[in-house]
Amino acid sequence: MGSxxxxxxxxxxxxxxxxxxxxxxxxxNTANSGNTDIGDxxxxxxxxxxxxxxxxxxxxEGATNKFYIFKSNNFPNSLIQGYTPKDEQRGGxxxxxxxxxxxxxxxxxxxxxxxxxxxPPSNYTIDVTNPEEFKWWGRLGNASSYYGPVYKTxxxxxxxxxxxxxxxxxxxxxxxxxxxxxxxxxxxxxxxxAGIQIHSYGPYQYLNDNAGRTPTLTGNQAYGGKPWGPQYDxxxxxxxxxxxxxxxxxxxxxxxxxxxxxxxxxADIGDDITAEFVATAIDNVLYAGLAAxxxxxxxxxxIQVTLLPAWFWGRESMELDWDFDTPxxxxxxxxxxxxxxxxxxxxxxxxxxxxxDNSLPAENIYSHMTNGIGGTRVYMCNSxxxxxxxxxxxxxxxxxxxxxxxxxxxxxxxxxxxxxxxGTQYGSDMSYLSLAxxxxxxxxxxxxxIINPLNxxxxxxxxxxxxxxxxxxxxYEPYTTVSLFLPFAGTIQIPASQCIGGSITVKYYGDCTTxxxxxxxxxxxxxxxxxxxxxxxxxxxxxxxxxxxxxxxTGITNGFQQRLSSTLGAVGSGLSVAAGVALTIAGDPVHxxxxxxxxxxxxxxxxxxxxxxxxxxxxxxxxxxxxxGIGQKQVILKVTRPKKxxxxxxLVLGGIRSELDATLDKFSTEYSTTMTRVKFVNVNxxxxxxxxxxxxxxxLMGGVYL
Amino acid sequence: xxxxPYQCSCDPRxxxxxxxxxxxIDGNSIAFKNYEPLDxxxxxxxxxxxxxxxxxxxxxxxxxxxxxxxxTSRERQNAGILKVNLHEDVLMTFRTEIKKLDVxxxxxxxTTKVQSDIPDSRPTKQYSLTSEYTxxxxxxxxxxxxxxxxxxxxxxxxxxxxxxx
Lengths: 706, 165
Known about the structure:
heterodimer, A: seven-stranded antiparallel sheet, 11 helices, B: seven-stranded antiparallel sheet, 3 helices
């Protein structure tokens, strides 16, 4: 037996429920005997909401994919509702859950129960293989945006159900207006029951209807679908949406409410349904969960819910006064700062690359080398093979100096790569190596020929640090700047408008023959920066670098590597790579030596200087070349954002921008303001002379102390 | 008509000065040439009724309400008579009505109940905060995580020799 204490603010915590007797609970449930005490789970009175992981390792196989922890037999009053991972993860290690309480209840006795699966076999909970997506926690009062993960289903999925807290929680304060929107892309003719639910978990915490703002529900609602609307269900938590939609409930103060669309058929892919709503929290520290979404039918594509920050909805009042030193604000307030290109018809469209991420050429442009054309071949080897080569120069007395010199000529370049760009091995490891006209036995090392020197991979996608925290022009340049350090290539600046609120994905394309790397940076803009089709703008950037560490065992200057490196630099510049390689092979532009067919010796001799050590050292701020081994190998994203702080004295004496409408008494008693400067006031309600009223107005607008 | 002399110790822009008014002496005599206009009075009063520390006066029940005045000037006359000029403190006189006014506030000395995200050119200290995020170090993971596979090869050699032509 053990106990659990969950704090009010519910930061991520780990809880071990392994002591709970799940088998006992399951047996009791099978016998339909109601709840069974399977262990102590003690909550303190301050418990309100939590999110964490539970050790569910002893939940028996097949027990359930959902469990409840009740305070009584009354289901709606359950305090914890959680879901184990989907079937293949059952018995696993993590569980996400939410806990809440009813105010005033005795919360000292709660019993975990593991009921049988009460949903049809076709149901399953959403995949939680990526728990990071569920760490969705923040204060909307701080004007942040939280984007829910995009849930996608394949074709012919009969039903998907996102559990209560799959979309996360948020907390806010009294007077904080917040909103949420849901975008749902559909497929062909399916019925859907989906929506957003807001549940307030704290004591006496209600949502206000925020009169004057009605939910905005758009999209194709054809095929006899019922309308969207808010739904109110009193004190109950609503695990599933009702089929009834009550518009009039929206005028009430709501504790738990939701908007849902029932049986809405979406005609075709691209017919989005978008639902938005706003609400205002009445009390401080409202804990609310953005919860259930459920749809059923075929071919649904994806659904995403976005929490909108508090003052996003208050922007109208913010636009009243732009007369001080703010940047020029125009339509780009909600749009991109990137400049669109004018179309032929006068409309504007953003220049955008094709959606194909693999936009770099896929063909093997180096086949001339790996296949021996040009007289060379590329090998991957370990240090033992290098030792074998060196040893034949210095220890093999059967070779004459002339033979050793010729062999030395055969070493074009040797370099080390601090990354896995070794290419594709051709055949098995070799026993002998051909060097000039001699063979070198590989006695202590391994070596293999490379048939394809190209390599590529994705280093990752980053979005967490790119959230539109301020959710206004301050999220973009020049106030917010984004830079990306790419190993072996250096630092590049990325326009904030092209990634804030979105994501950055970094891929690399490498060539082991030179160590050259081309990075492809895909920037997906946030929701405010869209292309002509209304989708988030996507931009690609290409940056080149080099990570080869030259090993000076060869007797020639490494002209080959230099020329080939410069040629490959054209990749990043968007030039014709194939043409560049052709020029290099056709002749030596530096020394003017033509390359005849099979004339490899002449070609390489052009850059040969006998018995000179390799002196090619590449340095620079990119930490590439010879610094590759000791430099930073991680991609580093840096986001510089403005952050405001208020001078304490000025706060008292001069005040900060308010734009709030209220009685002065409210400012004095509730807002505890000191200095107050009025912008608009009508003093005619005061029974005073005109001279007195004029002076009152003048004083108020000049600033008074309440 | 009763005069109450005070020493006022707060900013004149303070609406409710009650806790900043310190009575200097109870007055019982006042004489003005006239009471118009109400917001700018001048007249003669006994010097005894307004000690030197007095800079503020409340006159009870003048034109139907208690009114508060700043002493803007005082000049000694003969026989203990003081000539004073008074300017009405409309904020204090009408403080109750003022508190009930519905207003749009331009600036206020609060950080919690104002829309602090509105751009402000006034002395807010705005500075930059740089956050740094890293991708997982896939390079090293690949390199060291595959000792038996293709990544066991540390080096790349480009060679020319018999068999490569």
